[in-house]
Amino acid sequence: MADAALRLTTLAEELLGAPLPVRIRAWDGSESGPPDAPALIIRNRRALRRLLWKPGELGLARAWVAGEIDVEGDLYETLGLLAGLIWERGADTHDEIHPALDPRMRAAARGLVQIAGPWPPPAPPAEEIRRRHGALHTKRRDRAAISHHYDVGNDFYELVLGPSMVYSCAYWGDGDGVGEGHGDGQGDGFTLEDAQRDKLDLICRKLGLKEGDRLLDVGCGWGSMAIHAAREYGARVTGVTLSREQAAYARKRVAEEGLTDRIELRVQDYRDVRDGPYGAISSIGMAEHVGSVKYREYADDLYALLKPGGRLLNHQIARRPEKDESSYRVDEFIDAYVFPDGELAPLGRTVATLEEAGFETRDVESLREHYALTLRRWVANLENHWAEAVRGTSAGRARVWRLYMAASAVSFERNKIGVNQILAVKTPESGASGMPARARVWGG
Questions:
Q1: How many Å apart are CA 174 and CA 190, to the nearest integer?
Q2: Which of the four pLDDT bands, split at 50, 70 and 90, describes residue 188?
Q3: Is the pLDDT of residue 427 over 60?
């Protein structure tokens, strides 16, 4: 008799000490759990072997990327339920199954072994980055990490990001559900492209850009910020990226806009930029790649590249602080499949490091709910172009991005992570910052 789902539900509830809030549908056709709940579909017993070998997040991620597990129903609801039951309870582990587990864990493991089938576990999916060697955040290792994430194919990013080709948090209006938790960002016909344009314009105004100003755009992506600053504000822009695919795409866009006389785009590490001083620097969704061991160097380098009175706009994702910061670990799924070597820092630490480098912090604006809305729109774009995305990359890669973006949206909504724009000034010894007297009155 087909009973795998019931056996799995029983084992899971014994292990977690709580009712399972989702249904389970197993490979043998059996189902178990609340009939009105989303269903976790386990298509193959290989998924269980992955979990036995690598309990918790990475095992689940491998099974998801391989197509061995799926969700029927609302993906966001499912992720919220599972996050509350497992990850936020601290039940995830970064260690393999070990004989020294307590009796309840040993019994659950034996039960899973009986259901899981022959050992050993399958190899990780091809989309998983292979183990990196050497010191973190060397220029060579950073180039490889950026290539893994961004050189997926510009066509793929066009499907996900839409015409704006901006891969960072958009800036939504008051009628778009910001602050309400789960809006769809579609109020009054306001599009993702509108919200991304407004975000770029907000940054330009915070930087006080005007005709002829020199702007350095660190991590320039596909050129959207550079184009907006040059076209709308008359800035002369230098953009740097480590992704050759991004640079080629951005240069084509710049040429089509007729802005080659105002914009120079380089495949270059920001640490190698030596042609300052600049009047302003934008760093939008790039600093997450820098890493804690290099963040002070990042702050020092940007400070040195600015002229006195110059402004930095640092747009960066932040995590909540840990009670014991030494216990912080990089998210296994994100590290293995999305942002290799990426790290998040608490907002306070980032501000402190910028100020230790000499900057004066003038404004911090949280856009946490804005990012949740942005991610939901990206997920919708991906789902609406699923067949094209799979053809352009792979089914596994498309599944990585769907899970990563949906899970990130839930994390922003639940205040597990945030995103902030930090406006800082290289204030001269005279103390004349050049900032407006009233906060949030941008320009000049």
A1: 11
A2: low
A3: yes
